[in-house]
Amino acid sequence: MTTMFVTYAGDTDTPFNRAHWINVHLPLVRECWGPYGLERVGGFFPGDDGVGLIAVAACVFRDRPAMEAALASPRTAEVMADVELVTAVKPQRSLATPL
User: For the segment 14-47, what is each residue's pLDDT rounded down to a tens digit?
Assistant: First the structure.
């Protein structure tokens, strides 16, 4: 299992369309990357943690090759284009893999 965290940095003044992210973007991620081994995706909005994160998505893939295949797929462009409807913030990716 490989988890890709997608984080969006900002503060309370950073425009971020939460409704679109929850109701459109995350289902789009499931649709586009599910065939490549995405097992689940969820998101949350951290409280004012002082780190400056406004949203975090956790994309859980079957394994790292599945994640790499999803990211290399033609539908990734669709996922990234939809981010622009949510926010102007460029998302950052990080990985977590079990030991």
Answer: 899 999 999 999 999 999 999 999 999 999 998 7
Q: Name the nearest CA neighbour of 39 among 58, 22, 23, 16.
A: 58
Task: Compute the distance between CA of residue 25 and CA of residue 74 in angstroms, rounded to an integer.
Answer: 16
Helix (H, G, I), strand (E, B) or coil at 7: strand
Chain centre to alpha carbon of residue 11? 18
CATH at residue 11: 3.30.70.100
Tally of domains in the chain: 1
Q: At 56, is the secondary structure helix, strand, or coil?
A: strand
Would you say 55 and 43 are in contact if contact means Cβ atoms under 8 Å apart? yes
pLDDT of residue 50: 59
